[in-house]
Amino acid sequence: MILGIETSCDDTSAAVYDGRRLLSNVISTQLIHRNFGGVVPELASRSHIPLILPVIRQALDQAGISKSAIEGLAVTHGPGLAGSLLVGLSTAKGLSLGLGIPFAGINHLEGHIWANELAHPEIKPPFVVLIVSGGHTQVVHVPEWGTYRVLGRTRDDAAGEAFDKVGKLLEAGYPGGPVIERLARDGDPEAVRFPRAYLGEDSLDFSFSGLKTAVLNFVRKHGLENVKKNLPNIAAGFQSAVLDVLVDKILLAVRLTGVKTACLAGGVAANRALQQRLLNTASQQGVSVFWPPPALCSDNAGMIARAGYFYLSRGDVSPQDLSPRPALNL
What is the per-residue pLDDT across 73-119, written as a single tens digit (0 to 9) for each? Predict the structure, then answer.
């Protein structure tokens, strides 16, 4: 019986996993960051402190268990915001000592990969996964659980970060991803065409800074007030530029590795246009496609608990001197 804790950014989350299914997955999102158009690290870390214990209690209540039933703990120890990570990790260490049970520090990115297995237990390696969120964009080959080979990553902005910054630039709202996706449904993706950065014929790396600059130059040329009159088309053109690159890169990874399964993970994986575009293209090539439901795409403790079960059941236990690793690689 695993209690998972996730506090890598601005979501405070706790979940219970019993080895077969999630019994609870509680997520408390900090709304204060809407006032700033982005996550403020100091505010995020401070906001976790009063939330973490109530969220854990709620997760235990929803699971219908007491803390004495917990047999192991799983907690994100990187990557993420240092102060935010420290709150969750310190809480897990305290619970580990107080309850006399082991804990495992989990890589946040690996948790996103395990979210697919939570939603689709039939998934078996090998496969490739596109982790795409506000802080990360990378293609990973998973030959077996616990073994990960990063094939490509962003050289500048993550895709989710580009969505947020463009949403702020267009004064469309925050977070930018859901806002732009909603606007794009009523727009023509060919009305305004923005550049795609492929970085070479066989490159699996990403770059979205140039696309972001292209939107900025478009706004400067036409004026924000005029652009606002055409927001659906601007949003559709921008989103299409991002999705074209994401889909082409993950399918290139499929061809290069020879696998027959592709997965999406991370916050941007909840984008329905991305899901549909990948599904339509991959199905023509005989490739199976999976993605988690929205609650498991966002930062959540359910995926951390699932990864923790994998490691703790093998006897992989973290020491009490484990430190937060804000720049932890997969």
Answer: 999 999 999 999 999 999 999 999 999 999 999 999 999 999 999 99
30-34's contacts with Cβ under 8 Å and 24+ in sequence apart are 33/174, 34/174
Q: 315: left (phi > 0), else alpha (psi -120 to 50), else beta?
A: left
CA angle 213, 216, 218 (to 5 degrees): 110
Report field, pTM of the whole predicted structure over 0.90: yes
Q: Which amino acid is at 266?
A: G
- Among 142, 133, 140, 143, which residue's Cα sits nearest to residue 79? 133
Q: Is residue 201 part of a domain?
A: yes
Query: 128 and 100 in one domain?
Result: no
Domains in the chain: how many in total? 2
Q: How far apart are the C-alpha atoms of 137 and 140, rounded to whole Å?
A: 10
Query: Do 287 and 306 reside in the same domain of the chain?
Result: no
Omega before 178 cis (within 30°)?
Answer: no
Indicate whether 303 and 212 sit together in one domain: no
Residues 105 and 129 in one domain: no
**Residue 149 CB neighbours (<10 A):** 12
Phi (first) and psi of residue 27, to 5 degrees: -130, 125
Predicted local confidence at residue 174, as pLDDT: 82
Provide the β-strand partners of residue 105: 75
Q: Say how far apart CA 75 and CA 85 lie, in whole Å.
A: 9
Return the pLDDT at 30.
79
Greatest Cα-to-Cα distance within the chain, rounded to the nearest angstrom: 63
Q: List helix spans (H) across the chain.
A: 41-63, 82-99, 108-119, 159-169, 176-184, 209-222, 224-228, 231-257, 272-283, 294-297, 301-312
**What is the residue range of 210's domain?**
124-294
CATH number, domain containing residue 185: 3.30.420.40
